[in-house]
Amino acid sequence: MLKLLLARHGLTQWNQEKRYLGSSDIPLNSEGKQQAKLLSKKLNSRPIDLILSSELKRAFESGNIIKANRELQVNTNPRLNELHFGVFEGLTYSEAHSKYPEMLKRWLEDYDLPPEGGQSFSSFSETVKIFINYLKNITEEKSILIVSHGGVIREIVRLALGLPQDNHWSFQIDPASLSEVHIDHGHSTIIHLNDTTHLQEE
Fold first, then answer.
1. Which candidate in 18, 81, 96, 155 could, as Cys together with 128 as Cys, close a disulfide (CB 3.0–4.6 Å)?
2. pLDDT score, position 137
3. What is the chain's Cα-based Rg?
4. 149 an active-site residue?
5. CATH superfamily, region 2-14+36-82+121-201
6. Region 134-154: what's the mean pLDDT?
7. Each residue's pLDDT tens digit, 14-30
8. pLDDT tens readout for residues 185-198
9. Domain residue spans in the chain?
10. Catalytic annotation, pick one of 84, 149, 168, 198
11. 185 classed as catalytic
């Protein structure tokens, strides 16, 4: 059985400002670092065999804080990177609506028509699917900590449950939240989703 511990990175300034973040390489802010420390404390007693992270610094930094004194490396995997929002990156919804109204309208109607320079949802989903298939090839029993982004974690959960694409947005994944999925002989079970109880210690 694979036990997947799905951690979203801690807060960044752009998260606080509700900006499209995507592939922009923005670091954690001070609150995000503290959130990662609280998540590390929550996972302190959990056995972890492998840590995988997005290449983006907000996830990689979170992973290194969470691992604390464990004798494990945080291994990056590009398939855990967030969806690229193209010209929307760095903009709030209001700014994108003001600057690119037709492009935004088209994208919200069909996520396979991304903003200029952005990634289609189908391409993003296929990347996550390849990552899940890689995990399914691991035959030993392992607990794997995956430190990534809201979009990636939502898509892992959606694909694990075999739900339609429209259900991607059905899951709330907050900064520094923890979700857990078990995969046993191809069958997936959601143990918990978007747990943020550890952040109440702030």
1. 155
2. 82
3. 17
4. yes
5. Phosphoglycerate mutase-like (3.40.50.1240)
6. 93
7. 999 999 999 999 999 99
8. 888 999 999 999 99
9. 2-14+36-82+121-201
10. 149
11. no
